[in-house]
Amino acid sequence: MELMTLALDAAETPPILPSPPGGRVKRPAPSRHSAQAGPNRKNASMGHRVANMESIMVDFVLEYSRRPIQHKEPSEKEWWTLRVDGASRSSGSGVGLLLQSPIGEHLEQAIRLGFPASNNEAEYEAILSGLDLALALSVSKLRVYSDSQLVVRHVQKEYEAKDARMARYLTKVRDTLQRFTEWTIEKIKRTENGRADALAGIAASLPIKEAILLPIHVQANPSVRKLPLAIPLRQTKRTKSGRKTL
């Protein structure tokens, strides 16, 4: 039996978002971007979102950074990958993220949103939470994958964010992405984002108000043995002569 411990965080309040941008997006932009980072950009303050992260997220990052054997400092040429998903249901909203290092290590997080959020808002919250985690680990090059066509096309400047709240989320995401040396964002199929989708679904379904650790066991075999196939009995009939026939 295998065991995985899932950390579920609870976000009590929505983030403070800046004012919506004034101009409209006029042309699409390539999915890969580079930033001219100054010498102190990499170690810049994480801002109010990281300052307000729950203790379980902080412990999560510290635990990873303390692994001397498995952990490897990312070089300027190595890319990390981030898969995110958001879910909004009648039971609540949640986000799931999966951050993978260049050497294949996975960091997973499920966050329940303690405030009303639409599905698109949850998708944006998922990206922002994932970006915060990547920045906390000093990631410089990041590939982001999401199954939300609207959000991805917003970031790529292929769609215009007409809703005021979506525009504010978009500004927040693009500002945060500029803190990476290079980044890309790509739309993927939902079937290719199953793990992040599952994490978001768990967070949206559990009515928690504070961070918890949820052990998830993997049971390889059923509790009840399968019975062997029974051999059917042959039917016999007695004839007038007294002989038995099948």
Verbal overview:
- The structure is a single chain.
- 27% of the residues lie in helices and 26% in strands.
- The protein is an alpha/beta fold and 246 residues long.
- The strands form 2 sheets. The protein has an 8-stranded mixed β-sheet. The protein has a two-stranded antiparallel sheet with strand order 9-10.
- Strand 9 (237-238) and strand 10 form a beta hairpin.
- Helix 3 (119-136) packs parallel to helix 5 (164-177).
- The longest helix has 18 residues, at 119-136.
- It is elongated.
- It starts with a strand and ends with a strand.
- 30% of the residues are buried.
Write the layout of secondary structure elements.
Layout: E1 2-11, E2 32-34, H1 47-51, H2 55-65, E3 80-89, E4 92-100, E5 106-113, H3 119-136, E6 141-146, H4 149-155, H5 164-177, E7 182-187, H6 194-205, E8 212-218, E9 237-238, E10 244-245
Parallel strand pairs: 1-5, 3-6, 6-7
Antiparallel strand pairs: 1-8, 2-7, 3-4, 4-5, 9-10
Helix pairs in contact: 3-5
